[in-house]
Known about the structure:
Elements (H helix, E strand, L loop, with lengths): L17 E3 L6 E3 L18 H6 L47 H93 L1
Antiparallel strand pairs: 1-2
Amino acid sequence: MGGRCEACRANINVTQKRIKCTQCSHNYHSECINFNNDTASRSEWKCPACTASYRKGDNSNTPIRTNKSPSNTVYDKTTYRSSNKSTDQPTCITETSSCQPYNLELINSIELLLDKKLSAIKFDIIQELKLSLITEIKNEITNNLKQLEESHNSLLNDYNNLKSNFEKTSTKCPEWRDETGGIMCANKKKTTMG
């Protein structure tokens, strides 16, 4: 929520255009005070209440009202002189279709419904992502284990081959010694005779 509009007293949604008074810091719907970007600078804008309380100068032509008791008060329409007020100050407009109370109730109920639905959708998406991530990780681990097992089996086969070759070589070693010993003796005899 973006606060409460001081003109229509309704909540200001984050998606609605709004403006903040530079003097009192109250928020207003841009529609409620007829503000658009062409009207005035946001950094200098003052709300209608602050603008009304600000003295504009000499007020000697303002009519004087007499104090009347509340029981016999008669409201008469008094016309004031027009001031040379610039047109860049927005005026308060209280009747805008987007700020009517029955529309606000409908908007608020729709907003709550949408929030609930979006939360449910978000939850479902998160659950699907978790499940797919878990499945992906599980498949990756399974593939890595298969590769590791294949590598282990290959190394085990190589080890067994080396072991059997070593055993064969070890059993033939005495025979080779005899053969090499005989050759060496024959070579010695040849060298000593010759």
